[in-house]
Structures are given as C-alpha cells and as structure tokens.
C-alpha cells in the first residue's frame, strides 16, 4: 500500500513538473528560468547575496515579491529580503524616504535629475562595502528600477559597475483596450477580453495581476479598459464597482485606470433630453458622474473619447465643436486631477474631401482652444493604421495643444493574430519622421513627448493586442509588439534592434546564433508585410469589414472612403492617389520642406510614392524597372521574405522549445499562404488596368481573379 502511495505521489509530482514547464507563452518576457551561464551565475550569486528593501507600501511589497520571484528563478537559489543591511555585499532597494540606507548614500543630486518616475541603478560603495543600488524618488520609480534590474539579469549583463539613470520621455504611457462589456474585442485577435466583467468585482483573476506586472515591467502607467466605440453602461454604479476592483489591483503597479466616455451618456443614463456640452444640465450631469467615479476610484485617470466619428455621438450633433465637447469634460475632471484624451480620428461622409485631410481640417483651427488637461490623440497616420502611412499632418501643426500618439499594437491591417510583423520599426519610422514644424529636427517624437512646444503633459497610447488566449496575443511574436510599444513609450530613442534583442533573450533564447537569426526575422518582418499587402504607398486594399485578406476590388459601399478603389485609383494610365496640387492637395497640410520632398515624384520616397502620386504604369522606378514590373517584384519579394523567415525558423528547431517552435512554424505557414493570396489577388486585379504581363521570371498567380474575389472569410475575429 505504502509503495502504491509513493508511486502515485511520484507520478503526480512528475506531471505537475511537466505542466509547470508548459511552454504556452503565458509568462511573456517574465520567464525567470534559471540562467545557464555558470560563470555569470557565480558572479550574480556573489554580488547579490543579500537583499534589503526598506519600506512596506503596497508598491514596495510588489517590489519585494518580484525580486524574490525573479531572483530565485534566475539564480536558482532562495533569497531572503531583509529590512536591514546584511554584513556582506548586497542589493539595496528603496527611496530616501523609505530607506535610511538609501538616504545615507547621498544621491540627492542624481535623484533630482530622474524625476518622479525615474530611477538609478548603481554599483556603490557604502561604509567600505560594495552594493548594488536601486534608488528612486518614489516607490513607483523603485518598481521600474527593479524591473530594469531584473532585465539586466535576464539578458545576462555584467552588473559589476552599474551607473544607469533612466526616466521616461513621455509622461502618459497607456494601453487602449477596444474591449466591449460582452467580452468581444473590436479588432482583437487573441480571444475574448481579459476583463471578466461578469465575475468582477468578486473574482480577481490572476491574469489581472500578471497583466499589471507585465505592463509595469515596460513602464506602462495607464490603461483605458473599454472600447472607444463606447457603452455608457460602464459608467453605472454596477460597473464602476467592477472598474474599482481592477483599479485596486493595478494601483500598486503604478497603473491608473481610464474609461471611454460615450458622449450621449447624459441621455442614455441620465434621461436628459440632450447631451449638448454647453447645456447646464448636461454639465451638471457629467460633474456628478465624475464625482461619483472618484468615490470609487480616487486616482481615476480620466476619459478617452471618440466623438462624431464613425457614427459615435459627439458635440457636433449640437453644432458645438470638438473643443466644446472636450473642454466640458475637462472642466469637471480638472479638480480631481483627471484628463481627457480626445481622439482626432474623425472623418465625415458629408464632406466630399480626401479622408486624409479631414482630421487636420477640423482640428488645426481648434489649436489653442483646448483646456490644459486635454490631449488630442492622433493616429500615427491620417488614414487608419495601414502597414505603412506617412506621419499624420497634425503632428507639428497644433503647437498649442499636447498631441498624444495613438499607435495600433493589434495588427488590424498587418495580418492580425497570425502574421509575424514586428512593429517597432514602424513605430520608429513615425517617431523619427521630421515635421519641420520648427525647422529641421522637429521630429514627431519631440511633438509627442512635449519637448518641441514645452507641454506639461505628454502621452503615447497603444491599441492593445491582448486577449484571453493562453499566450495573451495569439501569435507568440505579438508579445514583442506589446513589449516594444511600452519600451518606446518610455524612451523613443531606443532602437528597434535593441528592443528586439532584449525581448528575444527574455522570451526565446540567449544563444547568440539563434538570437541573431530571430532578430533578422523580426527586423525584416514588417517590410515583408508591406510588400505582400500594400507596397510603394498603396493603402486600404483589404477585404470588406474583416480587414484580413486582400480586396482591392472593393467598391460601391455606403461611403466612398470605405472602399479600396477610392484609395488606389487604378486606371488604364496608372496607379495611386494624387494628393498633390493637381489632386486632393493633402500635401499642403505638411510643412514646405516635406511638401517639397514628397510633392515631386522623383524625390518622393518610393515607400510612399503611390500615397501621394498617380504614377504611369510605364514610369521608371529607382530599380530601372517600370512601375508595373516593380510592383510585381515587390509583391513577389514580400512572399519570398516570408519564405526566408520560414527557412530561418526551421533552422532553429531544437534551439527553441518544441511547443512554441511548432506554433510559430504553423503561423508562418499561414503567413506564407496569405502572402501568396495577397500577391496573386492584387496583381491579377491591377493587371486588369495595367494590361501588362507579370515578368516571366516571377512566380505566376495560382488561381483566377474571379476565384480570389469570391473568397469571403466567415466569422473572422475582431469585427
Ligand atoms: C474602434 C478603424 C477600425 C475600427 C475602430 C476605428 C477607430 O476604423 O476598423 O474598428 O473603431 O478605426 O479607431 O475608432
């Protein structure tokens, strides 16, 4: 009997062990597996043989927990976190306020320079002994420093002579969840919403805590829980209790909660006859509502608002401006310290103008009329998160208004949950673009971080790609985009390669050869997507509604600017949207220096050529080929790049755990199939205008245009 029991216990232990080791991607970049480099382990163990965290706030408690979990995992030995300085060399963590030891170190000047959220990581002598120090002015800064320190261990850096100081360039670093209260996620491709509204506030899913840990580790300090296509129900007491439960979980991690405000809420919830922002009853309703919210969540961040856009209600329903709407909300939030993030993603069916121009036309005249706690949130480009867009002309055009960047992390137009597209190069492309607003060097990044125009508030929002899939993001490489967004929101000067390296080491492998191979895959992946979907400045060619596959033939829809033909303008002469003076003149919304470069087809970068110009099929491109041939080459090149990624990934078999290797391998096979679908469908369609053959040496389309036009994915996610 005893033997049977022993055997059963062994059996259970074995399977528990196996399940603990499941490589399902849940742990994101916070895996904390024991390091394999013996020399480094020895060094770490020697210099980190005692940890002192003085202070007991909720955030410092989280710091202790994370240090314990991280260091025990990485070093493979248990650690004790003390309140007092141990005799030997040690890690000292805290603020001058929480820790007498940190106070004694005399870091005042250095700490002054890192501000409220920044931190120092130092190797410092104290009373003749060597210490590693994580110091900050606030507990939140300590938390960020702790995650940086753990990252150093995870990525196997030398920690003998640390002299790091870091502080965020952008003040508000925020995720936007387009999550509905029924748990569907608009443009979400990783399952249902992680917010389990039905079970809240009583059931706190471990995921909420792990979500907060992951976000804090990359410096995210805010989350908008609900879809910008908003439901006013979230503002009712029933839901506010649920929101409060989430806010309570996130608070120790330095993450504030925000909600989307449906502009017509005073009518829907308050039974008022109007939502006119200048109506005293409406103002009073919002004031009461805001006061009520703060009784639940004393540090509530504020509202994100989508108004008068794609059917959403807004101030224009009452002949009021966007500023009237934003300011009314800002006024009631201001005494509580809340802010308004008012989206500039607006376009009007009744304005028969190039959609590219509409946000600028509406918002530019409002510059200087917004209250101090309003930020206007602008998408990276003027259309809608296309695989490549030139930067939005509003950047640099509203110097008196803090403009917030809105990036889309979820890959609505870049293969959604199945394609590998590392987005850091795309984010960087926009951030480093020069607006010339105040002469050369007036980059979008400087507009967004507030430094160009000296704004007190600044922000970057990323539309989240997170869902309740076990690995959070559907594609394992989708995690890299969440990671990259946070890292760039903290410091937009980081390089895409550097961010990829960190992520790969923490997520997949630190072996130099596999790391280099994965980095190469990642760095070329977004350009591959651009090439097989929308090369040379083409845009908005996707299938109706689902936005997954190709649909360059889409026409005759309720709005012209919801069709593809509106954007590519293919005809027997050529291809592309003339946005110069002879066309829509959207170019006039940019600074003269930008106009001069992009306005001339010979100096316009080929990457955005067809965005701004209608180009003849036989026009010569930089490669010496005609436009038609170049297009064929680019589409084919996109497919080839995916095949190259497949080859690289296959070569990594055995170096990556089986589970994730197999998963990515399958996704790459889907991507290759989809890339051919895009290439073949688009080339066959454009060929009906160009009437030219696909160059002999390139692969021929597999199927007919009619066949491609009939493909209609059923129940595609995210709609
Ligand atoms: C949340 C695009 C998307 C919509 C999204 C909208 C927006 O149109 O397809 O799903 O709505 O952008 O950003 O408001």
Automatic annotation (TrEMBL):
Pfam families: Glyco_hydro_67C, Glyco_hydro_67M, Glyco_hydro_67N
Domain Glycosyl hydrolase family 67 catalytic: 153-472
Entry's EC annotation: 3.2.1.131
Entry keywords, A to Z: Carbohydrate metabolism, Glycosidase, Hydrolase, Polysaccharide degradation, Signal, Xylan degradation
Domain Glycosyl hydrolase family 67 C-terminal stretches: 473-697
Catalytic reaction annotation: Hydrolysis of (1->2)-alpha-D-(4-O-methyl)glucuronosyl links in the main chain of hardwood xylans
Database matches in SUPFAM superfamilies: (Trans)glycosidases, beta-N-acetylhexosaminidase-like domain
Enzymatic class: hydrolase
InterPro entries reported for this sequence: A-glucoronidase_C_sf, GH, Glyco_hydro_67_aGlcAse, Glyco_hydro_67_aGlcAse_N, Glyco_hydro_67_C, Glyco_hydro_67_cat, Hex-like_dom2
Signal peptide range: 1-22
Residue intervals of the Alpha glucuronidase N-terminal domain: 28-149
PANTHER family: ALPHA-GLUCURONIDASE A (PTHR39207)
Oligomeric form and interacting partners: Homodimer.
Family statement: Belongs to the glycosyl hydrolase 67 family.
Protein name: Xylan alpha-1,2-glucuronidase
Species the sequence originates in: Rufibacter sediminis
């Amino acid at each position: 009997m005893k033997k049977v029991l022993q055997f059963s216990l062994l059996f259970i232990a074995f399977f528990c062990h196996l399940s603990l080791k499941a490589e399902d991607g849940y742990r994101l970049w916070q895996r904390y597996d024991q390091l394999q480099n013996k020399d480094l382990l020895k060094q770490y163990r020697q210099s980190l043989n005692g940890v002192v965290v003085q202070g007991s706030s909720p955030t410092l408690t989280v710091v202790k927990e994370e240090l314990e979990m991280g260091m025990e995992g990485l070093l493979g030995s248990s650690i004790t976190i003390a309140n007092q300085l141990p005799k030997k060399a040690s890690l000292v963590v805290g603020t001058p306020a929480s820790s007498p030891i940190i106070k004694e170190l005399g870091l005042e000047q250095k700490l002054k320079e890192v501000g409220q959220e920044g931190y120092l990581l130092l190797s410092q002598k104290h009373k003749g002994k060597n210490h590693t120090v994580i110091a900050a002015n606030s507990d939140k800064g300590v938390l960020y420093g702790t995650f940086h320190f753990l990252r150093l261990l995870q990525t196997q850096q030398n920690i003998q002579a640390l002299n790091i100081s870091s502080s965020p360039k952008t003040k508000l670093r925020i995720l936007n969840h387009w999550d509905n209260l029924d748990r569907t996620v608009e443009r979400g491709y990783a399952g249902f919403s992680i917010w389990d509204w039905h079970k809240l506030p009583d059931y706190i899913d471990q995921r909420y805590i792990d979500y907060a840990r992951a976000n804090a580790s990359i410096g995210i300090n805010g989350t908008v829980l609900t879809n910008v296509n908003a439901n006013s129900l979230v503002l009712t007491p029933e839901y506010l209790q649920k929101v409060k439960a989430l806010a309570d979980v996130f608070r120790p991690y330095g993450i504030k909660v925000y909600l989307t405000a449906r502009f017509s809420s005073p009518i829907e919830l308050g039974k008022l006859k109007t939502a006119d922002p200048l109506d005293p009853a409406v103002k009073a309703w919002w004031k009461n509502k805001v006061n009520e919210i703060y009784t639940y969540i004393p540090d509530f961040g504020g509202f994100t608002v989508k108004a008068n856009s794609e059917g959403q209600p807004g101030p224009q329903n009452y002949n009021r401006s966007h500023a009237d709407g934003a300011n009314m909300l800002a006024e009631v939030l201001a005494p509580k310290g809340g802010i308004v993030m008012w989206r500039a993603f607006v376009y009007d069916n009744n304005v028969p103008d190039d959609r590219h121009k509409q946000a600028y036309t509406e918002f530019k005249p409002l510059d200087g009329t917004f209250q101090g706690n309003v930020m206007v949130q602008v998408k990276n480009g003027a259309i809608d998160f296309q695989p490549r867009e030139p930067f939005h002309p509003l950047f640099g055009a509203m110097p008196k208004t803090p403009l917030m960047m809105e990036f889309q992390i979820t890959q609505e137009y870049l293969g959604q949950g199945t394609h590998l597209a590392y987005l850091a190069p795309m984010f960087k492309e926009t951030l480093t673009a020069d607006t010339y607003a105040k002469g050369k060097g007036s980059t979008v990044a400087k507009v967004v971080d507030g430094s160009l125009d000296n704004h007190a508030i600044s922000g970057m929002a990323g539309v989240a790609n997170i869902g309740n899939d076990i690995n959070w993001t559907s594609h394992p490489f989708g995690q890299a985009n969440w990671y990259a967004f946070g890292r760039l929101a903290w410091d937009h000067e980081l390089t895409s390669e550097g961010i990829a390296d960190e992520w790969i080491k923490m997520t997949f492998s630190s072996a130099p050869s596999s790391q280099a191979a994965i980095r190469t895959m990642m760095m070329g992946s977004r350009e591959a997507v651009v090439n097989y979907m929308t090369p040379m400045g083409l845009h908005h060619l996707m299938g109706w509604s689902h936005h997954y596959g190709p649909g360059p033939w889409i026409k005759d829809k309720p709005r012209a600017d919801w069709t593809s033909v509106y954007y590519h303008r293919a005809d027997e002469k050529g291809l592309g949207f003339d946005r110069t003076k002879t066309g829509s003149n959207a170019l006039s919304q940019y600074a003269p220096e930008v106009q001069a470069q992009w306005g001339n087809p010979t100096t316009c970068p080929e990457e955005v050529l067809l965005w701004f110009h209608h180009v003849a099929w036989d026009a010569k491109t930089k490669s010496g080929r005609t436009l038609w041939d170049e297009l064929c080459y680019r589409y084919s090149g996109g497919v080839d790049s995916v095949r190259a990624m497949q080859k690289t990934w296959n070569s990594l078999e055995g170096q990556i755990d089986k589970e994730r290797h197999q998963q990515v391998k399958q996704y790459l096979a889907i991507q290759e199939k989809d890339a051919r679908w895009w290439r073949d469908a688009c080339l066959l369609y454009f060929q009906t205008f160009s009437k030219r053959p696909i160059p002999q040496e390139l692969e021929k389309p597999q199927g007919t245009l009619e066949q491609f036009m009939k493909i209609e994915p059923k129940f595609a996610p995210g709609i």
